[in-house]
């Protein structure tokens, strides 16, 4: 039960780190402007997760919980590999980030759900509800904790600069809203998209 709980926490942590990095890189690194464009990576994530959730029960009964969980982790490894190999600017880079979320969703659908089934087996038929709730609590607690961890990693790994040499000079509205500063911050200014460019979201193994 302890091992299953630890694995669930790891899944939640890796999920949070990559999702936040994808969301922040959308505007700060790839200059995506609309909310729909910034959150486009959630569509393949949700679709692949839903399909895997539908299939995982039968797969786990046929091949075993452990094998399905390992397969889920294996699929999940592809997500950061694709992101790390993507261009750091432009449409192709952002398309790679969106595509990588397909494997992230499949990983959660396979590995996390397999862990829920494993915990149900360990707790017994009379405590299936408890096992499911425990797994969700552990996973989402890890997601909450690693939101703060992500902030620390972001401050150390991401560097921002005005794109005078490769793009538009900072406009007056951007300068006014940002106080003349080009840096990672919680109050990111949409007026600075494409002008204050941050890099590092797709270079570090989140």
UniProtKB/TrEMBL annotation:
Transmembrane segment boundaries: 68-87, 93-118
Membrane topology, as annotated: Multi-pass membrane protein
Gene Ontology CC: plasma membrane
Superkingdom classification of source: Eukaryota
InterPro entries per UniProt: MFS, MFS_dom, MFS_trans_sf, MFS_Transporters, Sugar_transporter_CS
GO terms of molecular function: transmembrane transporter activity
Chief localization: membrane
A Pfam family of this chain: MFS_1
Record's keyword annotation contains Nucleus: no
Subcellular location(s) of the protein: Cell membrane
Signal peptide: 1-16
Domain Major facilitator superfamily (MFS) profile: 1-206
Alphabetically ordered keywords of this record: Cell membrane, Membrane, Signal, Transmembrane, Transmembrane helix, Transport
Descriptive protein name: Major facilitator superfamily (MFS) profile domain-containing protein
Organism of derivation: Micromonas pusilla (Picoplanktonic green alga)
């Amino acid at each position: 039960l302890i091992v299953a709980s630890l694995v669930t926490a790891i899944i939640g942590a890796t999920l949070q780190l990559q999702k936040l990095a994808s969301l922040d890189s959308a505007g700060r690194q790839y200059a995506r402007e609309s909310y729909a464009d910034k959150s486009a990576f959630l569509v393949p994530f949700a679709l692949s997760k839903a399909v895997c959730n539908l299939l995982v029960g039968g797969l786990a009964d046929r091949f075993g919980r452990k094998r399905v969980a390992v397969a889920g982790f294996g699929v999940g490894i592809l997500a950061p590999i694709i992101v790390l190999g993507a261009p750091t600017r432009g449409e192709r880079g952002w398309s790679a980030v969106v595509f990588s979320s397909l494997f992230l969703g499949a990983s959660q659908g396979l590995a996390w759900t397999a862990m829920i089934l494993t915990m149900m087996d360990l707790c017994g038929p009379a405590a299936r509800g408890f096992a499911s709730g425990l797994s969700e609590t552990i996973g989402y607690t890890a997601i909450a904790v690693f939101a703060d961890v992500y902030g620390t990693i972001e401050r150390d790994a991401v560097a921002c600069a005005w794109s005078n040499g490769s793009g538009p000079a900072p406009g007056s509205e951007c300068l006014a809203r940002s106080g003349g500063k080009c840096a990672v911050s919680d109050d990111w200014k949409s007026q600075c998209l494409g002008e204050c460019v941050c890099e590092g979201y797709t270079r570090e193994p989140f």
